[in-house]
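INFO  loader      accepted 1 record
INFO  loader      residues=112
INFO  predictor   begin
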Amino acid sequence: MSKRDELIAKYAADLKDKCGVNPDMDLLTKVTIGCGPAIYNADSATVSSSDESELATVKKNFLIGKLGLKDSADLDKGIDAVMETYGKSNRTKYRAVVYYLLTKHFKKESVY
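INFO  predictor   done
INFO  writer      dumping tokens
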């Protein structure tokens, strides 16, 4: 099993255990691949839900840049909803899981 496959399995477990979501493994794999090398770096592999600048980066680079959404208050609400689903008290929020949940939240699976 490759390192990426191990990470995808870990992300799937997070989705099931912490978010109560049964993941679409094909979409999760595509989102994980889309994250590129960031998933292998301990700092960039996670998203800090308490860091406003990090959430702004997720909004700008992923929601607007990758998913092609228009900048609006709905994007912030979507990020908040995903962080709530993942669990605000959960310290380790994997970037691929957050992106997967955002992709599902905004019904943008077609991007992948």
